[in-house]
Amino acid sequence: MKRLLPPLNALRAFEAAGRLGSFKDAAAELHVTHGAVSQQVRLLEEWLGALLFERHNRRVALTPAARAYLAEIGPLFEHISQATAKYGLPQPVSRTLSVNAPATFTLRWLVPRLATFRAAHPGVDVNVETSNEPVESLPGSYEVIIRGGPDTFYGYSMRPFLAEERIPVCSPALLQRLPLPTPEDIRQHTLLHTSSLPRLWPDWLARAEIAALTPAAALTFDHFYLTLQAAVDGIGIAMGPTALIADDLAAGRLVTPFAGPRLASRSYCTYVPDEKSADELVALFRSWLQCEGERADLRQ
């Protein structure tokens, strides 16, 4: 008799979501996006012809039938895991993934998160090089290139994974010394600039309808990460990219003195050579970036 087996990827997504009680946590464990888990669960529901989860805004709950189904299939996944460990199946061959990304993004966003990828994939070495060169001008060969976008380059597939806006930020200590009840009070402060992004402050001041304002002083740095570090150190006020300052805001190293306006910015995207787009490791790293990007979006 032919075995009645549902799609195994869909079953795996359901087991993880049901066990963890969250599509988001299941996506993190499986290193895929929240949408991928939702799609696989929906596929299993269509295959079974039964509803597995009740959707309630941002949370989900197992139906009674799904709870009983999970109770029977859940231990099977554990048995498979134990059998795999017991019989010592061959481990994946160690590989190195070559990545090129902008320096500020690498320092303030990618590096603090790489430990989670390495912990989940100990056989994968990630070689990161930093550069702001355009994708088509890079001298080396990379499997994953991270740049702003979305842009189109011949021979590359593009996928956005992290949105961003720009907003003034400063240290809490600076705000205590010189409060900022209104944007006009910026005139008492030092504005921090980055030479490669000269329009950030003029554009924001224009949006805030104080374009003619003259600050007490100005400092310009050649790298964005130096500008942000100067803000953390209480030297002045910087235009902070929301994606790259989220950790500093959460830790209290930086604060946003104003609710707005916010300047729109380009998203971070992965650009992968067409000949590498089907590579399993490249796809895994891209999915991990997508998952981390979705988490970051919720914090901004």
Q: What's the SSE pattern?
A: HHHEEHEHEEEEHEHEHEHEEH
Largest sheet report: 5 strands, mixed
CATH architecture of the largest domain: 3-Layer(aba) Sandwich
CATH superfamily of the largest domain: Periplasmic binding protein-like II
The residue-averaged pLDDT reads 88
Per the CATH scheme, the topology name of the largest domain is D-Maltodextrin-Binding Protein, domain 2
CATH class bucket of the largest domain: Alpha Beta
Rounded to the nearest angstrom, the radius of gyration is: 24 Å
Topology (elements, then pairings):
Elements: H1 8-20, H2 23-30, H3 34-48, E1 53-56, E2 59-62, H4 64-86, E3 95-101, H5 103-120, E4 124-130, E5 144-149, E6 156-162, E7 165-169, H6 172-177, E8 190-194, H7 200-207, E9 217-221, H8 224-232, E10 237-241, H9 242-251, E11 263-264, E12 267-273, H10 280-299
Parallel strand pairs: 3-4, 3-5, 8-9, 8-10
Antiparallel strand pairs: 1-2, 5-12, 6-12, 7-10, 7-11
Helix pairs in contact: 1-2, 1-3, 1-4, 2-3, 5-9
Give your account of this protein's structure.
By secondary structure, the protein is of the alpha/beta class. It has 10 helices and 12 strands. The protein has helices at residues 8-20, 23-30, 34-48, 64-86, 103-120, 172-177, 200-207, 224-232, 242-251, 280-299, and strands at residues 53-56, 59-62, 95-101, 124-130, 144-149, 156-162, 165-169, 190-194, 217-221, 237-241, 263-264, 267-273. The protein has a 5-stranded mixed sheet with strand order 4-3-5-12-6, with helices on one face. A 5-stranded mixed sheet has the order 9-8-10-7-11. Helix 7 (200-207) links the parallel strand 8 and strand 9 (217-221). Helix 1 crosses helix 2 and helix 1 (8-20) crosses helix 3. The longest helix has 23 residues, at 64-86. The protein starts with 7 loop residues before the first helix and ends with a helix. Keywords: DNA-binding, Transcription, Transcription regulation. It comes from Paraburkholderia dilworthii. Belongs to the LysR transcriptional regulatory family. This is Transcriptional regulator GcvA.
